[in-house]
């Protein structure tokens, strides 16, 4: 599903490198969590694997394809939900989705069916015509997720999809991710909610300072380190000092 090897990235004019030889591997289709403190390099890693940021060196294989040679094909097979809402605020959710669907060249009837289906699934069917700028945080997050699903990606990559949403929206999003995985799709997601990641993920990779700290099945990591929660493992391995 994802293989990252010795990835390095220093942003232009940055004082320090963001990724310092990151290597990690999620071999099988799964629900994987990419975890780490603020500034660990999670968003940078996601931006690299979807082609938004170019690495300085290292290799990344997504669904068995190399991002250096197969990026356009990879883009068609993955859906990315960015950390910040990537929708046009003055447009309605339906208009946003129609626009995105057209970019993917999804035929009109199929696109309308999918929009109807997902608006209903994410509880937005009654607000399809309302401008995104009037949406609540949870509604924006749900709409942001739909935008990544219209082309039916095999792999869904979500950067903090449950940040700042209420319990109801979070439940809906997590249930959707379980179901999507149950239908044979792969998921990589980031979150600072370790309890949530512990429940959802079959595999996690904890990174810090642009490197892998540890990866594996959360239950095995807890057992190996002698803790009863993933959060305890995380704190044990990454320390309690602030990252700012
Ligand atoms: N475009 C950029 N230019 C310069 N530095 C950047 C840029 N984007 C990120 N960085 C820096 O790279 C480091 C890692 O950032 P990144 O956003 O990848 O971390 P993150 O793990 O996603 O953090 P968070 O949990 O806060 O979202 C940070 O120190 C950040 O300031
Ligand atoms: Mg981030």
TrEMBL record:
Q: Spell out the PROSITE patterns in the cross-references.
A: ABC_TRANSPORTER_1, ABC_TRANSPORTER_2
Write down the InterPro entries for this protein, in alphabetical order: AAA+_ATPase, ABC_transporter-like_ATP-bd, ABC_transporter-like_CS, ABC_transporter_ATP-binding, P-loop_NTPase
Record bears the keyword Secreted? no
Highest taxon above the source species: Bacteria
- Stretches assigned to the ABC transporter domain: 2-234
Return the Pfam families for the record: ABC_tran
Q: Does the keyword tRNA processing apply?
A: no
- Alphabetical keyword list: ATP-binding, Nodulation, Nucleotide-binding, Transport
For this chain, one GO molecular function annotation is:
ATP binding
Q: What family does the database annotate?
A: Belongs to the ABC transporter superfamily.
Return the protein name. Answer: Putative ABC transporter ATP-binding protein
């Amino acid at each position: 599903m994802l293989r990252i090897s010795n990835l390095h990235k220093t942003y232009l004019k940055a004082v320090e490198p963001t990724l310092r030889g990151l290597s990690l591997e999620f071999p099988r289709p799964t629900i994987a969590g990419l975890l780490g403190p603020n500034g660990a390099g999670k968003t940078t890693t996601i931006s690299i694997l979807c082609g938004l940021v170019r690495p300085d060196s290292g290799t990344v294989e997504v669904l068995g394809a190399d991002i250096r040679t197969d990026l356009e094909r990879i883009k068609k097979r993955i859906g990315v939900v960015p950390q910040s809402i990537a929708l046009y605020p003055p447009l309605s959710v339906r208009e946003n989705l129609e626009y995105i669907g057209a970019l993917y060249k999804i035929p009109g009837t199929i696109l309308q069916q999918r929009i109807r289906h997902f608006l209903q699934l994410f509880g937005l069917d009654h607000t399809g015509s309302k401008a995104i700028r009037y949406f609540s945080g949870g509604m924006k997050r749900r709409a942001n997720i739909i935008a990544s699903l219209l082309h039916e990606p095999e792999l869904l990559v979500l950067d903090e999809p449950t940040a700042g949403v209420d319990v109801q929206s979070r439940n809906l999003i997590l249930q959707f991710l379980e179901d999507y995985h149950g239908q044979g799709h792969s998921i990589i997601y980031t979150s600072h909610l370790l309890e949530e990641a512990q429940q959802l993920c079959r595999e996690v990779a904890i990174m810090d300072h642009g490197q892998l700290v540890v990866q594996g099945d959360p239950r095995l990591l807890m057992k190996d380190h002698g803790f009863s929660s993933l959060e305890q493992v995380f704190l044990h391995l990454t320390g309690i000092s602030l990252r700012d």
